[in-house]
Amino acid sequence: MTKENTGPLRGIKILDISTMIAAPYAATLLGDFGADVTKIELPGKGDTLRTVGPYKNNEPLRWPGLARNKKSITLDIRTDKGKDIFKKLISQSDVLIENFRPGTMEKWGLGYDELKKSNPNLIMSRISGYGQTGPYRERAGFGTPGTAFSGHTALSGYTDRPPVSPPYSLLDYITGIHMALATVSALYSRDINEDVGIGGQEVEMGLYESIFRMLEFLVAEYDQNQKVRERSPGLAGHSSPAGTYETRDGKYVVLVCSTDSTFERLAKAMKREDMLENDRYYTNSVRLKHDDEVQNIVAPWIKQHTQDELTSVLDSYGVPVSPILTIEDIFKDPHYKARENIVEVDHPRLGKVKVPGVVPKFSKTPGSIRHRAPELGEHNEDILKNSLGLSSGEIEELKTQKVI
């Protein structure tokens, strides 16, 4: 992990003072693409994510993937000396990423109006549960409750059972992607408009807003049809046929015919071209009205084939189908290997740990994993001495005072 930094964001300096998943993930994505990311953590405690499972030998296994390409320094920015050091770091940085409750940074005297005195070109990227404004701005916000607030959970599950939350931190990761996009957009705006002095700015969003942004069909449907969509275990009300199907060998696949041309290819694969002439099936809109009938034709045909047989046949006809892969399947899959979707990173105690690779891929300025996730405060001396010019004695005094 000493790869040369050829990423498109090389030269950009980011301070990450956030915790847990959403905002740190945004910083990690930017680090993957070449940004120099320094993570500031509370002395003696660090990011809460350092204690979140799953584990091996008491080692948190999320940390290697979510904190790669970052340096770590400890700094209590609530103290006077900590604030002074923080502002010096701000003066050398392009971006600050934070996810405290709205008003927290201002309470500490570190709001954007104050920080831009140290660096008027600073981009301050802020994630909170419900955003910096609105009546719920001060509520505690976490991913699973935020998913419920977004409208997503109400759509998930079976109608005869309670709604189902995602089995992992889906909202946090989607929000992280949105914030990474917003941050590079703000950087581009700052730099491309340098001559007109736009400078830095705040970029902020609530956790729930990232998934809500993806539910445009739900918003328009309720606005125009006053329909409250019921929850469903799969894609519902969009395409027919669509769903999860069992194969002859007891495995499962997901099949979706989102367009009429796709259904035409499926009908030919099933040797059921007659459906293309039937006024109950020939377009998606009429198939949706007779979806039970369509499913009673498609599901038994799928059940006649093994998973491998089915995917081979449908692939040859250009029908979108995928086996439902477990993580064990993914580790063995040749496509994941060819795409370098799983890579190894160093770990100070576990030796090597596999993590997701860098995506998207750039043809001329590829991202990379250049160094492993840091130990708490691992880069204190490097940054405080080499970047800020503090002496060894000053650093020791800061340790004694628990500022770092």
From TrEMBL:
Coiled coil: none annotated. Pfam families: CoA_transf_3 (PF02515). Keywords: Transferase. It comes from the Bacteria. The keyword Transferase applies. GO terms for molecular function: CoA-transferase activity. Gene3D superfamilies: Crotonobetainyl-coa:carnitine coa-transferase, domain 1, formyl-coa transferase, domain 3. SUPFAM superfamilies: CoA-transferase family III (CaiB/BaiF). This is CoA transferase. It comes from Salicibibacter kimchii. The lineage of its organism: Bacteria, Bacillati, Bacillota, Bacilli, Bacillales.
